[in-house]
Design brief:
The protein is mainly α and 466 residues long. It contains 50 helices and no strands.
């Protein structure tokens, strides 16, 4: 009886009991004589000792995934050479190959695997691949889930051709760790392409977008930047937002601008926004703009802000207002400012306001005029003040008026100064009073004057007796 005949008559249990030495001593005929159930019963250690030249004789399709963990590189190379691209192994068997074996394959050997075999590689097997194994051909066969298992180092090592070959379906599978490995040339090839760029970038999940380096964000052009979805924009880090250019955001609709959070807005170079985009900033976004950002808004965009938006400007933000921006403010705009923001207007801002705007200030805002702001008022602006406005000025505000300003008040407006506020009039104010103003003052208001003011009135009369 030949060895082959003997082996073919063994039970499954007896096959399992064969030592690795016995299995190693099986010749080609004996290996070929192993029945389907025999092969299915082989262990990984038994499979590992079968000679490379005899492995072809084995009924490979019957090997269990457990046994395939023992397949050696030499055996696999023999299978690939003899059966052209590992046809002898079903895709369902591929998962049984050890990561140690997978890691030893060359890119040529890996390319010999058929599409379904590549797709059968497990996460651990994918992770075992190194840069030299990942060719454009093998990458093309990976599905989204497998691409999702690529590490940052693996993605970095893909090379231009392999990275550029990624489809939008594969890109959708990229993890945050994997996307972090993309290089700037990959970004350009994948996302700035006028044909496929939008679909590719749109496929990238939000976490992957957030993992892109600032250099990669900077590498996006109008096509790539414009393709960012609202969800992706929401995921951008403040460092990424800070690097955005006018070119990158040029394709953003106002809905995308509105999607930026307060922290993102604070990091944004608002000069990158066009007039329509800047004009569409929400009140919540405007409320967190810094003085530098406010100053960077174009006069056109600033002038288009509604009173609700103007009301949202903070005291810190309004300090950055340019004189040109202040010049666009109308009465309703200024009155919409909150009192803290209005009080923060500089003397330059006040000087830029039209006298009609000053004359239309609400009494609430007039009450918060600072001494510096009052000093900055021009003669035309002082003249524009109404009786109602003058009536709410405090003594310290009256005192802040420059010499000669009181004389600009018409008699009726002078009469509007409250009894308490009269105490703010200084000597030079009295010396500048007109006869009509003095007459008004002596009409029942003398008792409210201080001793100094009484003497100043006498001096103002010159030779006239009070």
């Amino acid at each position: 009886m030949s060895l082959a005949t003997f082996v073919s008559n063994l039970s499954v249990s007896q096959i399992k009991g064969l030592s690795t030495t016995s299995v190693k001593n099986l010749d080609t005929a004996a290996v070929a004589a192993l029945k389907t159930e025999h092969v299915a019963a082989l262990s990984s250690s038994q499979l590992a000792v079968i000679d490379n030249d005899e492995i072809e004789s084995l009924k490979l399709s019957s090997l269990s995934t457990g046994a395939l963990a023992g397949l050696t590189l030499g055996q696999l190379q023999k299978i690939n050479t003899s059966t052209e691209a590992g046809v002898a192994l079903a895709s369902g068997q591929i998962s049984g190959l050890s990561t140690g074996l997978i890691s030893q394959l060359t890119s040529t050997e890996l390319d010999a695997f058929k599409t379904d075999q590549i797709k059968a590689l497990t996460s651990k097997q994918i992770s075992a691949l190194d840069a030299s194994q990942l060719s454009a051909a093998s990458i093309a066969h990976l599905d989204a889930a497998q691409v999702g298992k690529l590490t940052s180092a693996q993605v970095t090592a893909l090379g231009d051709a392999a990275a550029a070959a990624l489809s939008s379906a594969q890109i959708a599978g990229l993890s945050a760790a994997g996307a972090a490995g993309l290089q700037t040339q990959d970004i350009v090839a994948l996302f700035n392409d006028s044909t496929s760029g939008a679909a590719n970038l749109g496929a990238l999940n939000s976490k992957a977008v957030a993992s892109l380096s600032t250099a990669n964000i900077a590498a996006l052009d109008a096509t790539g930047g414009g393709a960012l979805t609202i969800d992706q924009i929401k995921s951008l880090t403040t460092d990424q937002v800070a690097i955005l250019t006018a070119d990158e955001v040029s394709g953003w609709g106002t809905d995308k601008v509105a999607a930026l959070s307060s922290k993102q807005i604070q990091a944004l170079n608002v000069a990158a926004l066009d007039n329509t985009q800047a004009g569409a900033l929400t009140s919540a976004q405007i409320a967190v703009l810094s003085s530098t950002q406010i100053g960077a808004i174009s006069d056109t965009a600033f002038g288009a802000w509604s009173t609700d938006k103007l009301a949202a400007i903070s005291a810190a933000g309004i300090a950055g207002l340019t004189a040109a921006q202040a010049g666009t403010l109308e009465t309703g705009d200024v009155n919409a400012l909150n009192s803290k923001a209005f009080a923060a207007l500089s003397t330059t801002h006040l000087a830029a306001l039209d006298e009609d705007v000053v004359g239309g200030l609400s009494t609430d805002l007039v009450k918060v005029l600072t001494s510096a702001q009052i000093v900055a008022l021009t003669d035309d602006q002082v003249t524009a003040l109404t009786s109602a406005q003058i009536g709410v000025l405090s003594s310290s505000q009256i005192a802040a008026l420059e010499d000669g300003d009181i004389a600009l008040f018409a008699t009726g407006e002078f009469a509007a100064i409250s009894t308490a506020a009269l105490k703010g009039l200084q000597e030079n104010d009295f010396m500048a009073l007109t006869d009509a103003q003095i007459d008004e003052l002596t009409n029942g208001r003398v008792p409210s004057l201080t001793d100094d003011q009484t003497n100043w009135v006498v001096a103002a009369y010159n030779d006239t007796t009070v």
